[in-house]
Amino acid sequence: MNVWVNRSYLRGMVRRSASESISPNIWLTVVVGGLGYFVDIYDLLLFGIVRLDSLRAIGVRPEAMQDASELILNMQMVGMLLGGLLFGVLADKRGRLSVLLGSILLYSLMNIANAFVGSVPVYALLRFLAGIGLAGELGVAITLVSEIMPRHLRGYGTAVVASMGIMGAVAAYFVHQIFNWQTAFIIGGAMGLALLVLRVRVSESGMFRDVQKQEVQRGNVLMLFRNGRLGTYLSCIAIGIPIWYVVGILVTFAPEFTKESGSTATIVPGQCIMWTYLGLAIGDLGAGLVSQWIRSRRRTILAFLLLTTACIVWYLFTPAKSAALTYLQCALLGFSVGYWAVFVTTAAEQFGTNLRATVATTVPNVVRGALAPTLLAFGALRRFYAAEHDVMQTAALVVGAVVLVLAYTGWFFLKESYGKDLDFVET
Questions:
Q1: Helices (H) and strands (E) in the chain, counts
Q2: What domain count does the chain have?
Q3: Other CB atoms closer than 10 Å to residue 318's CB: what's the count?
Q4: Does the residue 347 lie in any domain?
């Protein structure tokens, strides 16, 4: 009896070891996904870094800078919202790999073209098209990696993808320090085209190939509104909103927040972005590792949400900040919202193979898009509290409180997905 039990146990261990082995091709897919997201983030943030230099070069007058910047940024955001839906649906209908190839080809070509713009309308059009391409990278890469990795190890794979990708922001900053804005755009596009060579060796998801053979709907957005899926979808979005509140408001306006604290320090916006994304890269890797070690996505997200709350309070209530302290706070804020990979992975794990890419691609782009109403609310509150001394702090606190309440509410209703078998479909 004991011999039978031991042999049965050993056979079970062998089967488990085989099912959780990671082939070189899987690691290649993870690395290529990470490099693709690296180029994605590089290109996504490059306009913000080269904005003033590029607009001056094409003849935009100082008084028209703000309007031109807002137009171009808004066109890029609209492109990302549309691209998230387009590429998510296509990835569920036609396959993960072909969509990755298409998205990276589109944004690579558009970024090369950006180096030769001569007017604001053309600039805005190219950023709109680049935005469509940029929207497809992360969600589809996370979906592909999640489906090919062993289920108890996939957190490691998605953490590597996200942490490699976030470093693209740091690269964009240093490339701009060395080269002019046109060369920076060309480098981004060239890196993307170079990745296409590696993409050829990446295999399609076996789960998707199996679903192709089944008589099920794939990539049908209307399925999100059936059988209680909408609540889960909205919960996934809610837990990610604080990430872009931190990046889009607290970090973007770091010079203004530092000045309002009573400081006379000179804050360089590009350095704030660079330190924030360096923290994000470390946080993404850390959150992925923690979720594996404690075997829980939900508890990891809660821990990082609590850390985010603490960092926001510290950031807003620190008086007379020095430049060094502001950069440190940006780095720690970045680390605290570094649950981006776990957030997208959790969204992907909540839904079946026939709807997974649609969700994993639209959710992060809706979160990015949520920055627009968040900024509008922040601006309205600044005008409302204009008579107060700490107007920036007050407006940020109110908006931040709302954003965090939404995130904690979304977390409360979200189901644990660590180790979940993803080989299922939505009906």
A1: 18, 0
A2: 2
A3: 17
A4: yes
